[in-house]
Amino acid sequence: MDLDQKSTRTLNYFVPQMVTISKSGILQLSILILFIMGGFYALYIQIVDGHIVTGMRDNVVWGLYIANFIFFIGISYAGALISGILHLLRVEWRHPIIRIAEIITIISTIIGPAYILLCMGRLDRLHHLVLYGRIQSPIIWDVLAISTYLIGSIIFLYLATIRDLAALRDYPFKSKWRHTLYKFFAVNFNGNSKQNRYLERGLNIMSAIIIPLAVLVHSVLAWIFGMTLRPGWHSTIFAPYFVVAAVFSGTGVLIIALWVFRKYYHLESYITKIHFNYLGIILMILGALYAYFTFSEYLTSWYGSETWEMEVLYKLFDPHEYWWWFFFAAIVGVVVPILVILIPQFRSINSITAVSVIAVFALWVKRYLIIIPTLETPLLPLQDMRPEYIHYTPTAIEWLLTFAGVAMFCFLFFLFSKFLPIVSVVKGEEGTNYAELRKTVMQRIIKRT
Amino acid sequence: MKSVIKHILIISLVATITTDNIFAQKKKTARVQVGYFKNYDKAEHLVATLIVKEKRYVPLSNGVIHFYSVSDTSRVLLSKIHTDNDGKAVFIINDDNPKIIKGPSGVFTFEVEYEGNSSVNAAKRKIAIKRGDLEVSFFQKDSTKSIEVSATEIGLNDQIIPIEGVNILLYVQGTFSLLNFGKEKTDENGIIHIDFPTDMPGDTTGVLTIVAKIDDNKTFGTIESRGEMNWGIPIEPVKEKQRGLGDTDAPLWMVYTLIILLSAVWFHYLYVIFLIVKIKLVNGSI
Predict the structure, then answer these.
(1) Mutation test of the interface with chain A: which of B274, B275, B280, B285, choosing the one with the most A Cβ atoms within 10 A?
(2) ipTM score of complex
(3) For the whole prediction, is pTM greater than 0.80?
(4) Do residues B97 and B78 touch, judged by C-beta distance below 8 A?
């Protein structure tokens, strides 16, 4: 496939980084593997000794694992939504970030559901979900939605990488296996007009489908909680609230990923301040929306004064229970990113990344606060129970598996960057076509007026 | 000085422990309540309830209750029964129990006693009852439906004597409790007449269970009698909703929605895969 000068330059820049690994890279990779091994050890302990090694009991049946599940599915959503919308709108600055967004989607959609498996007491009965699952159950909706979403995201990412795969196929790699691999996945693409047309059609379809699908996936996840008659969960705005929170945290993760890869691969000329500024503004708008939903949700609960809802609210506002976490998740994690991005003097690549870290961590805490205080407030009062049955405290096993999940996320990202350039090498033709089309339309409008 | 303080401390400690022990040995007050019941199936029994005073009176389980039949001159032990979790002990009165003593004017006197233990005081209670009976009859003339209840007692020589001036309550048996629809005092013949309401809902065939009751009377205790009549308005049986949220089979709209949504998405996936195959098959120049 013939490449233009810019694409050739980009390819030549990325390929050496793909085939080699620095000493610091090996060290970082070793640390990640260490965390992952720690996770496997924790998993072994959990399988051998059972769920008694976790903080979950009969009353608080969900803990860190489900918080992690919601968190990962949330960030996957942002990747799909941002890449889908930017592709459909043919936004020019999307190219350096769109692939990272798509990779975030796929990796987190793989890691997130793994936490559900960790939460299950009887993994040997997993197939019962398919054999005896009831369509009425939101859990089944979730299984169907997430699996469909994951397959859609893989197809979308694959379509978006075909041009780069073709370029890599034609690159004179020393290793034969790379050549074979790229040749297989490049599906004879040589950039002729018909192939470009088919590819663009496929990309348009997938980007149009992935947006509602992502909304649906996170809505279904919210309905698992929203359709349960528990205080703090049974809310009609839970689905849009989850969706907004998901894009908010996902955009934060995308900014962090951009910052890391920009530093790691020295991509200053590809990922510029413009990208951080645009994504920062998206983060700010989503933060404001998230704050609005949070205020609306808790105001309605408080005003209703329903006994059990108030029980949960008291816990969230009690300094001896969850107040400081709630303060961080609902106020610090929203106000700080908005203020920093809103004031131009504060706006820099590092500050935007720093507030993204705060937002992402705040959103993780928020997921924890959605689950635990509600489960610690059963509808039937508990008496003569051991404290650990009423109050949930995560154990070292759960923390090990949580860190292992984050490490696995980074590790898979690293692996991916060794097979494909982390930013698009070959631009599609649609960019120029779209620009030309817009130019023609504008000229016609001017002529008429 | 130090030794004085030491002695004061030791005395205080001993005094505290002793005082605690004195309080710990104080016995709790117990009470026994007793009632006589005659069911609609003519089964008679005495129910004794044992309660002890904690912060308030609470039932005492596994306490032994002695049931006695007493007269002016004698006291015969009938049975010893342990109380259940509700503090209740039930003694069934059999007609042919030779230990039960019949007093003058056909009065039976029973005594229930709890002998107490190391932490609970003893308690006892007497009850004197006459054994009575209720008979329910139903009459219908044109659209008027009426119920006649006759109350009788068994005299000293087993003769049947009408009970005069006793309150009789009438109920309809509901799913969970009794629904009261009348109350009247018996006349000199021991009889009451009550018109039955015409708007009472029955079961699917209109059948109602009508209950007549003398409730917690000082002389006769609680006596119940019942009968069934199809005087109610038949109620349409509740049609069970098919394919509801809680059924094995999902609601059809849900099934259709799921099929349509998944089909729409998967159709596009397959089409995109078809496009990828076409990309592979197109082998032209640029």
Answers:
(1) B275
(2) 0.86
(3) no
(4) yes
